[in-house]
């Protein structure tokens, strides 16, 4: 992979120029960007890979659902359907995508969950059919046909955007200057109890603009794993198989190792579609622990139900009162 990126280095200036020109055309109004007379909050990133968008969307749902009619709108990555889809009792991970399916399963009584690769059409359909009071856009920072009223940009502590370059040599979908569009920048997956002097160094490197706020978050792991029928304390687990199909499983692996648990790790690519051969391998395992996103894809297999568990996670935000106030102030606007 490193060799490919070195070889592709001459292509990087072309990608940089094209993505910069695209952004400039939107900034100047030469390409149309639609804004809305209702609160639309975008959660996204500059980088490819996992920055914690799903738990951030869930954090916002939990924060807002008691006071507003909330809808989430995602692309529905790798779904088998086309166009606008509103989640219902017949939805599956295949029909709406694993992450939206996760939102629906967790919050179906409280929020509307929709998918549409054309976010502008998705918003119009939600307004026409369901009239939500707040819309949360999942992974739409580069979807500039929609002008969200509030942008939350996520970047990981281990691989921050300000130390990266654009594709194909780096991981950035667009140049670093795109961060200027954010209202809030959250450094995610930080170590617990990150020192204030290190936070200050990171803020200095981010160099936020006057309108921008920087926050730090970490992953909060539950103390038990959950199946369709029962729960088990993490400390009571033994000799299990960890199955992950996410962008970066390292934080989860480190968490389980820190607990001195005995497990093997089957690590698949992000959004992996489990084949019959994969399921045959998993059928031979005594106990399987996975992520909630992977659980949404695997729970359909009857042979796995009795031994399949997921570990719930949450986003833990430093100075969360200030963060919450900024979000609710915008939602009230």
TrEMBL record:
Belongs to the LpxK family. GO terms for molecular function: lipid-A 4'-kinase activity. The lineage of its organism: Bacteria, Pseudomonadati, Bacteroidota, Flavobacteriia, Flavobacteriales. InterPro entries: LpxK (IPR003758), P-loop_NTPase (IPR027417). This is Tetraacyldisaccharide 4'-kinase. The gene is lpxK. Pathway: Glycolipid biosynthesis; lipid IV(A) biosynthesis; lipid IV(A) from (3R)-3-hydroxytetradecanoyl-[acyl-carrier-protein] and UDP-N-acetyl-alpha-D-glucosamine: step 6/6. Keywords: ATP-binding, Kinase, Lipid A biosynthesis, Lipid biosynthesis, Lipid metabolism, Nucleotide-binding, Transferase. HAMAP family: LpxK. Pfam families: LpxK. Transfers the gamma-phosphate of ATP to the 4'-position of a tetraacyldisaccharide 1-phosphate intermediate (termed DS-1-P) to form tetraacyldisaccharide 1,4'-bis-phosphate (lipid IVA). NCBIfam families: lpxK (TIGR00682). ATP binds at residues 47-54. It catalyses: a lipid A disaccharide + ATP = a lipid IVA + ADP + H(+). Its EC number is 2.7.1.130. It comes from the Bacteria.
């Amino acid at each position: 992979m490193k060799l490919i990126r070195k070889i592709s280095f001459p292509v990087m200036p072309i990608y940089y120029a094209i993505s910069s020109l695209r952004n400039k055309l939107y900034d100047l109004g030469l390409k149309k960007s639609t804004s809305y007379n209702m609160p639309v909050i975008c959660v996204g990133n500059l980088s490819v890979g996992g920055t914690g968008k799903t738990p951030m969307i869930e954090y916002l749902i939990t924060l807002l659902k008691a006071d507003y009619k909330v809808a989430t709108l995602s692309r529905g990555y790798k779904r088998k359907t086309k166009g606008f889809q509103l989640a219902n009792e017949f939805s599956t991970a295949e029909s709406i995508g694993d992450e939206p399916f996760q939102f629906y399963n967790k919050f179906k009584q409280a929020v509307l969950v929709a998918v549409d690769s054309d976010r502008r059409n998705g918003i119009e359909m939600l307004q026409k059919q369901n009239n939500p009071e707040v819309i949360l856009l999942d992974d739409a920072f580069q979807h500039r046909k929609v002008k969200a009223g509030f942008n939350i940009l996520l970047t990981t502590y281990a691989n921050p955007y300000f130390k990266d370059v654009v594709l194909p040599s780096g991981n950035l979908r667009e140049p670093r200057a795109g961060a200027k569009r954010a209202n809030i920048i959250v450094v995610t997956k930080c170590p617990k109890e990150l020192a204030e002097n290190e936070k200050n160094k990171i803020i200095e490197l981010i160099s936020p603009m006057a309108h921008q706020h920087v926050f730090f978050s970490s992953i909060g792991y539950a103390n038990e794993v959950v199946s369709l029928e029962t729960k088990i304390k993490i400390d009571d687990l033994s000799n299990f198989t960890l199955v992950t199909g996410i962008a970066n499983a390292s934080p989860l692996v480190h968490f389980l190792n820190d607990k001195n648990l005995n497990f093997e790790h089957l690590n698949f690519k992000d959004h992996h579609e489990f084949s019959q051969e994969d399921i045959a391998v998993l059928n031979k395992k005594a106990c399987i622990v996975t992520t909630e996103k992977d659980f949404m894809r695997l729970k359909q297999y009857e042979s796995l139900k009795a031994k399949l568990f997921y570990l719930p996670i949450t986003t833990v935000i430093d100075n969360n009162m200030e963060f919450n106030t900024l979000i609710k102030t915008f939602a009230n606007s």
